[in-house]
Amino acid sequence: MYTTFMFATGIENSIPTINNGRTRIDQMEKCGHYRLWQTDFDLLKELDIQVLRYGPPLHRTFIGPGRYDWSFADMTFGDLARRDIIPIVDLCHFGVPDWIGNFQNPDFPELFAVYAEAFARRFPWVQLYTPINEMFVCAQFSAAYGWWNEQLRSDTAFVTALKHIVKANVLAMERILKVRPDALFIQSESSEYFHAENPAAIKPAEIMNARRFLSLDLNYGRRVDSEMYEFLMDHGMTRDEYHFFLNRSSLRHHCIMGNDYYVTNEHRVQANGMTKAAGDVFGYDEITRQYYDRYRLPVMHTETNFMEGPTGEEAVDWLWKQWANVLRVRNTGVSVVGFTWYSLTDQMDWDVALRQENNRPTPVGLYDLDRNIRPVGRCYKQLIDAWCDVLPAQSVCLTVPVVRPQDHNEAPVLRHQERLRHMRSKEAKEDEEPVATTQEARR
Questions:
Q1: How far does Cα 365 stand from its chain's mean position?
Q2: For residues 185 and 127, is the Cβ–Cβ distance under 8 A?
Q3: Which residue, among 103, 109, 258, 227, has the nearest Cα to 175 in the 3D structure?
Q4: Could you tell me whether strands 6-10 and 51-54 are parallel, antiparallel, or unpaired per DSSP bridges?
Q5: Which CATH architecture has domain 6-442?
Q6: pTM for this one?
Q7: Peptide bond into 343 cis (omega under 30)
Q8: Mind telling me which InterPro entries this protein's record contains (predicted)?
Q9: Any idea of the CA torsion for 101, 350, 173, 432, to the nearest 10 degrees?
Q10: Domain ranges in the chain?
């Protein structure tokens, strides 16, 4: 068992479409990973990073109903297993294959769940998953802001995208657990806060601060606030759809609350409901505490970065600040199990949130796109070296029962999986009981 604190990075596999679906922004292609994947994996050893947020490109792998092209995944995941690197598998990152269309498609949840199970069966040594990355952000950018994919701007479109995305995530967790009963789900979700600029802005800020929890409330089977319940019902969610999520609450026992924090995650709200960036007013520690108080799950800081500027120290200072925040959260008694600088290399066009294809590098990586290490990469390596042996010895809460790829067939692991499979079977039966009761009442 690998049970120490997880220092991680990621290789982004975002694939949203823009221009009404005509243009796909494929970050793995634009950042050179399809050509340089072996080099990228070599960089992990250079940094002594053993945990990687990573996934196959969905649009290239899931080529039709029940049809898959595993060629790239077989190469890359085979190499990760050989290197004994622990992947947190990111199966859907901001986009779907052309043949599915977009997140308004009601068939998406079941189609995606079948894909998730197929992946789990092909790579049974994989234990950690983020089935769908940043569900709230994906629905917001695609169906409320009109930036990506369906490019719609309405509350009904947002609720439709959100319920389909979260249902797909929940069904994927269920299907993966059929294959790997000790699977753990690290849900990478944006942690947000909305500050009222003046008294007239208090009400819209309150609504936004309630709305930010919707994806995780549904994902973890938590009853939403009354105002959000009315919002969901008024914009297309049915009672049966809502109860689908409530009846899957036992899945939360397999979850770690991954949360992302950037300098853009806090917002100033005006009286008319318009927002602008606020900077890090509360910071990661305070906002994470709000999410933890709501869900009471172990926490992992799953994404952060900062653009390197003229001095070269801007990202270094942000890394230090985020790490100080992680330690503060941990010192208040929250089970913090990992930290992630996202991503391994610079990205492309994130300065405009992938809304335009400018092919302009965004200098936020541990390495630039020529695979030269940045100052923040050197500092992250030093941070890992300094803290990797200290944290587990200081706190029993900073552990998570992760199995290394090379140990997945060991007898103790298989016995543990069998116990969890039995427990999961009992949980599933208990989850079905309220549904049966409701059906009896209707008859």
A1: 18
A2: no
A3: 109
A4: parallel
A5: Alpha-Beta Barrel (3.20)
A6: 0.93
A7: yes
A8: GH, Glyco_hydro_1, Glycosyl_Hydrolase_39
A9: -70
A10: 6-442
